[in-house]
Amino acid sequence: MAASSIAVMLPTAGASGINLPESLSGNQPELARHKLKAVKFTPVQLRYPRLVGKNSRLGVHGTGPNVTVCTLTTNQGAEGVALLRGSTGDANKVFDTMKDKSVSELFSVSEGTLNEKHLAFDFCLHDLAGVILNKPVYALLGAEKPIVTSCYSGMIYFDEMEPENKPAGLGKVLENCQWDYNYGYRKLKVKIGRGGKWMSKDEGLKTDIAVTKMIFENFPDCDILVDGNDAFTVDYFISYLEGIEDIPLFWIEEPFRETREDYTKLKKWMVNHGRRNTLLADGEANPDHQLVLELGKEQLLDVCIEDISGYGFTPWRKLAPQLKAIGMKMSPHAWGDTLKSFYCTHLTGAFGNTPAIEGVTCSSDDIDLSAYKLIKGRITPPSTPGFGMKLLK
């Protein structure tokens, strides 16, 4: 996924779109003092607050992923700690080509990771540079203070279907919404598309509509986002919109596989039926990157949501100003683990242009997540060096 996305990235190497202050633009000598000495890979168990069930395409998502975190250590004793992109076997081979090189040969504050062959360590190099320079990552990207935006819960799935031997019913959806509300979220992304795989088309549509109405009635001070994971046709999705009547939607994500014809039809329908302010977000699953950008230029899509890890932090740094230039917003997909959500707060904290960040609530005994707190529906990235997350054991 990462390789295919990088291959179609627009050729603007080094164009961060942010003017770095003089105190940061001249930091390469400090990075040059540090040479990579060692790499360590650590399994980290993350726990969701509850079982996450099915969406329109996939079965039960479980209770939390086991991810791999890498630690890069320099000859000066500095450590960068962050999520690994890809496998440890491939990363070990890549590290052999990086060992004993200075950090400045591998990373530039103005550009990020300099060689795409090293993007397995993209997050880690950003963290390491922040530690060496005693700056949070958003400051490396040029922001004196982070731009803070809202954060939505991305964890409202087909909760009524579990457990399979004794389904909990729709009340379970409300129970999980209440947990997220109590935790601090004021935006709820609701999975729809039950008729794509798990129910008949008619039954699935009725249930999607009922769930949306139920959440709207019980959480009137929350924004609702819906995510179809490409389970709909354009006409089937318009039937859903007709069914929820005048319930406002903050955004619509991946209703169907992105095509110009379908988004033209949907956008026209929405404009003609009072949904001009609802955002259309796409580009997550196996995206046609160039088409997504073209649809953004044509104002048929509003938000680009390629994955923060699959696409890469450095490629996203280059993409962000391009999106702003064509009038398209960004909100990198972060589902899977909370580390990705936290990385997004630094990226969007520097560039802005983000209507909401995807929140993936997790806890862990293996990594310190305490620097990031959800307050009144927003997560502010900490001012600690790098990304501000360290291993606990």
What does this structure look like?
The chain is α/β, with parallel strands linked by helices and 393 residues long. It folds into 2 domains: 13-134, Enolase-like, N-terminal domain (Enolase-like, domain 1), CATH 3.30.390.10; 151-379, Enolase-like C-terminal domain (TIM Barrel, Alpha-Beta Barrel). It contains 15 helices and 15 strands. It has helices at 2-7, 22-25, 28-32, 88-96, 103-106, 122-133, 137-140, 171-183, 201-218, 234-243, 260-272, 289-297, 308-311, 313-325, 338-351; strands at residues 36-45, 66-74, 79-83, 107-108, 112-113, 151-156, 187-191, 223-227, 251-253, 279-282, 303-304, 329-330, 357-359, 374-375, 378-379. The strands form 4 sheets. Strands 12-11-10-9-8-7-6-13 form an 8-stranded parallel beta sheet. Helix 11 (260-272) links the parallel strand 9 (251-253) and strand 10 (279-282). The longest helix is centred in the middle third of the chain and has 18 residues, at 201-218. The radius of gyration is 21 Å and the shape is globular. The two termini are 31 Å apart. Mean pLDDT is 94; it is low at 1-15.
How many domains would you count in the coordinates? 2
CATH class group of the largest domain: Alpha Beta
User: Oligomer, anyone?
Assistant: single chain
Structural Rg: 21 Å
**Can you summarize the main beta sheet?**
8 strands, parallel
